[in-house]
Amino acid sequence: MSKQKLFFRDLGNMGYKEAWDLQENLLQENLKIKSHTSNKENLADTTSSTSNHLLFVEHPPVYTLGKSGHPENILISEEAMLEKKIAFFNTNRGGDITFHGPGQIVGYPIIDLEKFYTDIGRYMRELEEVVILTLLEYGIISGRSSGETGVWLDAGVLGMERKICAMGVRCSRWVTMHGFALNVNTDLSYFDFIIPCGIQNKKVTSIEKELGKKIDMEEVKEKLKNNFEKVFDCEMQELVRSI
User: Fold this and answer.
1) Residue 234 catalytic?
2) Contact between residue 180 and residue 107 where contact means Cβ atoms under 8 Å apart
3) Secondary structure (3-state) at 241
């Protein structure tokens, strides 16, 4: 059986809203295809024309709040955000407040889960697995924290728990958007002005902080791509940026 094809694009540095609009357009294209073929009896027919994508991007400094997030987890005023040149968006993803900025790799998979499996919980665990495997290549042992999403270090050690990758997704008719944010060389001081993901008394970290040196972003991206292919058993095709 041939592997699912996934189109990859590295968007470089892009504003949050611009990247969100691109995701939304790709999602809506897939939903339109599904809507036009919804009367077909064979499930394979309804998904054969949908396409799978993975976008990588670095955003200028921005705080984003999930649809069920709590504004009280934002500890900075609008005026201070403007002064520090930090943007803010309410989003339609799951999860609470988080930060995106330079030195962080944000991955946005827009995939039709009906081509893989219809299990959002499994999808989240496999996204986490992509990051866990990538960190392991740097000698960083990471894992999951019970009842919480994302990738953690020392999740079971009281007072030592620290999050290295946040996650939040949206899924519509089994088509996903939003995704993960892995701190590579991120300026972690931006997290001081929020309660990250609404989780009290737990720290945030980065690959740079854990290893004590700057990390090659392009190298991390290649490892993430390879592990994504491995975990999701798909084949990636790189597209040049066309927007």
Assistant:
1) no
2) yes
3) coil
Residue ranges of alpha helices (H) inside the chain are 16-36, 43-47, 78-84, 120-136, 207-211, 217-232
Please tell me the CATH code under which domain 4-233 is placed. Answer: 3.30.930.10
Contact 186, 59 (CB under 8 A): no
Residue ranges of the domains in the chain?
4-233
Most confident of 36-50, 75-89, 190-204: 75-89
pLDDT confidence of residue 176: 98
Which position among 165, 171, 197, 234 bears the catalytic label? 197
Tokens (6 digits) for 166:
């946040």
Q: Residues 230, 19: contact at Cβ < 8 Å?
A: no
Within 59-174, strands assigned E span 62-65, 87-90, 97-100, 104-110, 143-145, 148-153, 162-172
Question: Is residue 17's pLDDT more than 50?
Answer: yes
pLDDT in tens, 44-61: 454 568 999 999 999 999
> Looking at this protein, which amino acid is placed at residue 68?
S
Average pLDDT over residues 7-25: 97
Residue whose tokens read 């991007």: 57
What digits encode the pLDDT tens for the residues 155-180?
Answer: 989 989 999 999 999 999 999 999 99
Please state the pTM of the whole predicted model.
0.93
Q: What is the CA radius of gyration of the chain?
A: 18
- State phi, psi for 188 to the nearest 5 degrees: -75, -10
* Average pLDDT over the chain, rounded to an integer: 93
| CA 201/CA 68 separation, integer angstroms | 20
Q: How far is CA 197 from CA 71, 107, 187, 204, in A?
A: 11, 17, 17, 10
